[in-house]
Amino acid sequence: MKYFKFLVIGVFFGIILSKAEVISWYRIYEMFKFQSFHMYGIIGSAVLIGILMVQLFKKGIIKDNKGIQIKIPPKKNAFKANLFGGIIFGLGWALVGACPGPMFILLGRGVLAIAIVIIGAVLGAFVYHNIKNKLPN
Amino acid sequence: MIDFILQPWPWYVSGPAIAFVMLLLFYFGKTFGVSSNLETLCTIGGAGRFNSYFNSDWKSNAWNLTFIAGTIIGGFISYQWLSTNEVIALNTQTVQDLSDIGIQNAGQTYLPKEIFSINSILSFKGILILLLGGFLVGFGARYAGGCTSGHAIVGLSNLEKPSLIAVIGFFIGGLIMTWVLIPLIF
């Protein structure tokens, strides 16, 4: 049961994104049309608080549950991969209106069609790892 | 209180709540990132037979699969008990724009029936859109090294350049799809 806490955090996350309407296709469309502040407010305030949080990690004011300093694993620095991968991701995000988190939340809300999207996403990850050596990095 | 929970949550509640989720995961020694689960699902599905990359020990990511299982439950709970309806207060211009390209009743539910209804998953075009959209998300997220959670939330919070580039990419792709391709597809 050592993973139970992650289940609870996941439940919490699923409720937040549902109530925030982040899982709505329309909210994503509206964001890319620059017709609402809603999504920008959510991501912006999360990041702003996140930046402050990371500073508290670095100063050792917030530590993890074992009392050890929290270190964030750095992201792979690969300009082309970050950019091209990002563009491909964005095309899909705007088309189905769901990034990976919301896909699973929508499944829980009984949206049958999202199962096809999830199958597509797993296939996408699989195909990426089979051709990654041929892609610009 | 219960009235507040039943209403849609404003951005200034939702954004900080997401940051709190990130904090909780860090506190328990983990890093927030949903799209790596797609690879774990490949591993569990037996993808290691085709590519040794997927022969990794998926149990090290079991915490994250548990997190995902939680989000499914969270979606169910919010759908069953924490909403009175699914009406979204969209910009009226958005509703008009969508009507112009053939997507009607925008904002009356969370999802457009033109994409997510049973009828659309029974049509070739409908399945293709869902499968392709998912494929692009999964492929792009792993190529970029993360999705909205790993790059846009955690990476930007840590002021990472790769994450900034990835998020710029998310927007280039999203803008092309929304402004150019979606009007052609529907």
Describe this structure in words.
The complex is a heterodimer of chains A (about 140) and B (about 190). Chain A has helices at about 5-20, 25-30, 40-60, 80-95, 100-110, 115-130. With about 140 residues, chain A is mainly α. Chain B is an all-alpha fold and about 190 residues long. Chain B has helices spanning about 1-5, 10-25, 35-45, 60-80, 90-100, 115, 120, 125-145, 150-155, 160-185. The radius of gyration of chain B is 19 Å and the shape is globular. The termini of chain B are far apart. At the A-B interface, helix 1, helix 2, helix 3, helix 4 and helix 5 of A face helix 2, helix 3, helix 4, helix 5 and helix 7 of B.
Could you list some keywords that capture this structure?
heterodimer; A: 137 residues; mainly alpha; 6 helices; globular; B: 186 residues; 10 helices
Largest sheet of chain B: none
How many strand elements of chain B?
Answer: 0
Structural category of chain B? mainly alpha
Radius of gyration of chain A: 18 Å
Average pLDDT number of chain A: 97
Protein name (chain A): YeeE/YedE family protein
InterPro entries (chain A): Sulf_transp_TsuA/YedE (IPR007272)
Organism (chain A): Aureibaculum marinum
Transmembrane segments (chain A): 36-57, 78-98, 104-128
